[in-house]
Amino acid sequence: MAPKKNHYLGAGVDAAKGDALVDWLQADTKPFVSPFNLGKVMDGIGGFAGLFSLNIKNMSKPTLVASTDGIGTKLILGLQSNRIESLGQDLVAMCVNDLYTIGASPLFFLDYYATGGLDADQFKSIIGSIKSSCKLCQMALLGGETAEMPGLYAPKHFDLAGFVVGIVDEDQRLGPHRTKAGDTLIAFKSSGFHSNGFSLIRKWLTDRPRPDLMDKLLTPTKLYNAIPELAQRHRETLHALANITGGGTSGNLPRIIANDLRAEIEFKDLPIDSWIREFITSNGVDERDVEEVFNLGVGMIAVVETQSLTALLQDATELGLDPHVIGKLVAHQGPPEVSFR
């Protein structure tokens, strides 16, 4: 009997390769139990859905927190320069860093990987980066989806999306309801541009190539996985956190401060790396003019009780968050706003 013809393979979709890669991922995945004793994976990668058993006995008002994101056109730069090995960390960081702003602990992560044609090395590089990042953040890679879509994506091209779920006790939730005039603003330094503003970066690189900066430009987004520990140590004095992504400080900080407050920031105190400053100004642009595009060295901004500033700075330094005092909150009338001096 002649072997059955694989019509799907003829259309460009290799289902057998996809199954083999799922088998690889299952074989390399260990059972997960939350280090915070918040739960464990019951049934993970390979099924139609993943199961996670929650342990919420120690929380008075357990609240689930969820976030989703991608890595934007930084992915194109990674593909063009054949540097994709850290894009999985970008994906995890862009999702989990949002979760940390609530004071939440992440539980599990799921990814969506869509490609024009499955490449085993590419898949393992990306998913391997996602797995190692999940491990650093002490959460499970619970599952995901791999979609092969020839015609929608060119061969070797792909896109990524991520989804994270965490938990916080409502009584300990960070946010604008805790902020007040007199609070101090602390920037936690970024690892570079993170995954923001790369459409403009790519335009500049088209006009003026900078092969000397490719490694720096593709440095992965920092995982602020030390924040849950910082929040535990400073439950009363860490009031709010902002993840500085697209829109810069002026676009993101107002989201986590209350009405009738203005954030006054010393622009000169932003922890901008010299190579970032040189890259921006070499394209004939003043740093202040692109503040709404780039994070300018700031990965997170914490709003903290000023009386406890010294202790919090010491702990943030010990935890590798590289803190920098950049300003304060002052009273004003109207919606929250940011001003630079």
Brief overview, please?
The chain has 341 residues and is α+β, with helices and mostly antiparallel strands. It has helices at 7-10, 15-27, 74-80, 87-100, 120-136, 198-207, 214-217, 227-233, 248-252, 274-281, 309-318, and strands at residues 39-43, 51-54, 62-69, 105-115, 140-148, 158-169, 184-189, 238-243, 261-265, 298-304, 323-331, 337-340.
- Low-pLDDT segments: none
Q: Quick check: average pLDDT?
A: 90
Helix content class: 25-40%
**What do we call the CATH topology of the largest domain?**
Phosphoribosyl-aminoimidazole Synthetase, Chain A, domain 2
CATH hierarchy: architecture of the largest domain: Alpha-Beta Complex
Major β-sheet strand ordering:
8-10-7-11-9-12
Number of strands: 12
The number of domains is 2
CATH superfamily of the largest domain: PurM-like C-terminal domain
Oligomer: single chain
Q: Quick one: CATH class of the largest domain?
A: Alpha Beta
Cα gyration radius (Å): 22 Å
The SSE string, one letter per element, is HHEEEHHEHEEEHHHEHEHEHEE
Spatial separation of the terminal alpha carbons: 80 Å
Structural class determined from secondary elements: alpha+beta
Shape: flat
The largest β sheet comes out as: 6 strands, mixed
* DSSP summary: helix tally: 11
User: Strand content of the residues, in percent?
Assistant: 25-35%
